[in-house]
Amino acid sequence: MNFFKLFEMQRTLDSYIETKQGLHDEALLERKLLALQVELAELANETRCFKFWSTKEPSERDIILEEYVDGIHFILSIGLEYGYDKTCHCQYPESESVSKEVLVTDFFNVTDKLLNLRKEGSKEAFEALFTSYLTIGAHLGFSGDDVEEAYMKKNDVNKQRQDQGY
């Protein structure tokens, strides 16, 4: 997975959004951190990993993957805010299916790392957040290629949404 390419794509999208929305002079980091938290919850909802009271199956794989890459968009955008796009050394882990209990733990790990990044702002905290989020993707059975391809598709959708007044 070519994270440097994805960071550049995200930089272009962020600039486009900021121009379209008149946001160049606004501090957006806090909103991006909260947006990631919301996207993480939406992803958990689609996986249904925490819904012990329900027998309903998780959403279809493509829906979960699209929710997952929404989070990737915000993590990349957050990395750009901090200036860690050129120094990020994250690797996408091998994919494997895991139990619901492991996924629940993964979601809490990302939440913990997100709050730590907000507090510290360090490169290490960013990479820990990114790595823990990538682990969720791998534990959902997505390959790096799956994620990269879905990211590029969703990036196009996000730009089109801006053109349509989303």
From TrEMBL:
SUPFAM superfamilies the UniProt entry points to: all-alpha NTP pyrophosphatases
Highest taxon above the source species: Bacteria
Any Pfam family the entry gives: dUTPase_2
Stated name of the protein: dUTP diphosphatase
InterPro entries xrefs: dUTPase/dCTP_pyrophosphatase, UCP030140
